[in-house]
Amino acid sequence: ASPSAGASSEAPAGKTITLGFAQVGAESGWRTANTKSIQDSAKNAGFELKFSDAQQKQENQIKAIRSFIQQKVDVIAFSPVVESGWDTVLKEAKDAGIPVILTDRAVDSKDTTLYKTFIGSDFVEEGKKAGQWLVDKYKDASEDVNIVELQGTTGSAPANDRKAGFQEVIASNPHLKIIASQTGDFTRAKGKEVMQAFLKAHKDIDVLYAHNDDMALGAIQAIEAAGLKPGEDIVIISVDAVKDGMTAASEGKINFIVECNPLLGPQLMEAVQAVVDGKEIEPRIVTKETTFTSEQAKEALPSREY
Ligand code: GYE
């Protein structure tokens, strides 16, 4: 390198750090923002990023991780599409002496020495926030409130946890009833398709709880096509707070959004550097998040980064 190049963007010891990152896919607005954050911050940190997109399939992620091991990258980071089934490949990385960092989604491995840290949101907490808003809204209800749920990818940490947290909180009011619950795989297309089926099967839907904005946005299309008003005829709650979701909220089509921050890149690069430097790092790094009503979404929209 020329003397001027790399002054601020190369690893101090002279050797560039190579990071292998196995991404879930490109299923949602959240994921697009997350990928950009990781790519931008790897560049800013001066790391060489080997990036792979698993198209929402665990087998593809396992292949990518094995290829990172073969290429002897310095650190492997990934966002596990589902929670189970990682022990074997994580053990292979450990045996090869390559540290692993989990971002965004967790694994259910009992052996926590298989990874250095998990950086991401508390999805149970997100589900609880969604549930609490509903409990408050219907605190005086004297009749049943019929809820349909669009779950995220089956077996994924955010789908499992957002469901569990929500259920736990709404259990305090027996009028709050989940009458149908199905996966929409975190995508707009599936959200629309499943909502169409819900509307056909149930004439009396009061509330939609979608595990992400994209599924809510797909469902809004189905609701409008059925001649109903999203946000009025059917109350809608979702998670993420990406731009398109916040826009729908500011128009009153989504009533409440729980924020899930996708900008994990800077924290991830810090953790990578610390691991390479042999420093101790916290085993759990939780992202800070808030919530938005329609009114708050309108205010926050102009300054939204993603
Ligand atoms: O909420 C959803 C995405 O794992 C937190 O995955 C992430 C979720 C996010 O597809 O939109």
Automatic annotation (TrEMBL):
UniProt superkingdom: Bacteria
Location(s) in or outside the cell: Cell envelope
Domain Periplasmic binding protein: 25-280
GO CC annotation terms, alphabetical: cell envelope
Primary site of residence: other
Protein name: ABC transporter substrate-binding protein
SUPFAM superfamilies: Periplasmic binding protein-like I
Molecular function, one GO term: carbohydrate binding
A Pfam entry, by short name: Peripla_BP_4
PANTHER family (alphabetical): D-ALLOSE-BINDING PERIPLASMIC PROTEIN-RELATED, GALACTOFURANOSE-BINDING PROTEIN YTFQ
Gene3D superfamilies: 3.40.50.2300
Key words, A-Z: Signal
Family named by the database record: Belongs to the bacterial solute-binding protein 2 family.
InterPro entries: Peripla_BP_I, SBP_2_dom
